UniProtKB/TrEMBL annotation:
Domain of life of the organism encoding this protein: Bacteria
Name this polypeptide is given: Luciferase-like monooxygenase
InterPro entries assigned: Bact_Lucif_Oxidored (IPR050766), CmoO-like (IPR019949), Luciferase-like_dom (IPR011251), Luciferase-like_sf (IPR036661)
Organism: Sphingobacterium hungaricum
Similarity comment: To bacterial alkanal monooxygenase alpha and beta chains.
Domain Luciferase-like: 20-295
Pfam families per the UniProt record, alphabetical: Bac_luciferase (PF00296)
GO MF: oxidoreductase activity, acting on paired donors, with incorporation or reduction of molecular oxygen
GO CC, any one term: cytosol
């Protein structure tokens, strides 16, 4: 295992009192600051029918942010492939790669990124598309391959371009698929940590080298709230906890200012549910983040930590990126 890399996941969250444009501008700012701090990549997640998330048109947002940065890799974390025809995604990401060479990642997920009714609208009433995820990933690979020049259906732009594909997941199914196809694997421990250790083991044990990747490459996405003091980080983290409570109770709110206690304090059912969802959350000052994140990465043999940043205050949000980058530098010494 080499040096631990650091990256970030963005959902373009709309904050309380803010607009969609504000959320997009915050995402641009995240990318620019992350680039300055040496982050490897920033990914955007595809979600639909969610009032306070502005990343539904993921490819469009990736292009916008890529145009506002210079070197950081920009990609999807992920494109929910069953929502789309593989040819369309090949053309979209082929276009992005042509515009921003050697900077575009294509992370692919199987889930709908929304509720079932909206998934039906996206998939034109065909919910069976998720069963063909492997076939669709391989179709995408073929569209990108130079050998596809002899095919009657070709992706222009896209064909012959080196666009790395990543498999995303929150279960063991995705681990088996990433291993079988010899692709890098990104696990969503920031909201579904239960199967993390098992998935990492399966992926590394069953990995088959491929044209894209000779050895396993493991990314784990976790929540990190870093601040000047651990006490401050714990307060800032209430915004994250309250957001997850809204997901669990289906009372979704914009990302809101911290509260003295989580809004669900004293309701055991919600407390347990939130605790389970956010058990891969790291809060603290630089020393605490360095120790805990370093131990976490070493124990699991992770190549890259991808962080979320659900901090309401913009300046404290950017400061968190800085502290995390410094922590990873310490880990790599």
């Amino acid at each position: 295992m080499g040096l631990l890399k650091i990256s970030t996941l963005e959902l373009a969250n709309v904050v309380k009192g803010g607009t969609t444009l504000d959320a997009i501008n915050r995402s641009v700012e995240s990318a620019q600051v992350s680039e300055q701090l040496g982050y490897e990549r920033i990914w955007f997640a595809e979600h639909h029918n969610m009032e306070h998330i502005a990343s539904s048109a993921t490819s469009v947002l990736i292009g916008h942010v890529a145009g506002k940065t210079k070197s950081i890799r920009i990609g999807s974390g992920g494109i929910m492939l069953p929502n789309h025809a593989p040819l369309v995604i090949a053309e979209q990401f082929g276009t992005l790669e042509a515009m921003y060479p050697n900077r575009i990642d294509l992370g692919l997920g199987r889930a709908p990124g929304t509720d079932q009714l909206t998934a039906m609208a996206l998939r034109r009433n065909n919910l069976n598309t998720s069963f063909y995820f492997k076939d669709d990933v391989q179709a995408l690979q073929q569209y990108f391959h130079s050998d596809n020049a002899i095919s009657k259906v070709r992706a222009h732009p896209g064909e012959g371009l080196d666009i790395p594909i990543y498999i995303l997941g929150s279960s063991t199914d995705s681990a088996y698929l990433a291993a079988e196809l010899g692709l890098p694997y990104a696990f969503a421990a920031h909201f579904a940590p239960a199967m993390l250790e098992q998935a990492v083991q399966i992926y590394k044990t069953h990995f088959k080298p491929s044209e894209q990747l000779a050895e396993p490459y493991m990314i784990v996405c976790v929540n990190v709230v870093a601040a000047e003091t651990t006490e401050e980080a714990e307060v800032l983290a209430t915004s994250l906890f309250n957001m997850f409570a809204g997901i669990i109770t289906n009372v979704r709110r914009p990302l809101s200012p911290p509260t003295e206690k989580p809004i669900y304090h004293g309701i055991p059912e919600i407390e347990r549910a939130v605790d389970q969802m956010v058990s891969c959350t790291f809060m603290g000052d630089k020393a605490k983040i360095t120790e805990e994140l370093g131990t976490f990465a070493k124990t699991l043999g992770i190549d890259e930590i991808m962080t979320t940043n659900y901090i309401y205050d913009s300046s404290k949000r950017l400061k968190s990126f800085e502290i995390i980058a410094e922590a990873v530098q310490e880990i790599n010494k």
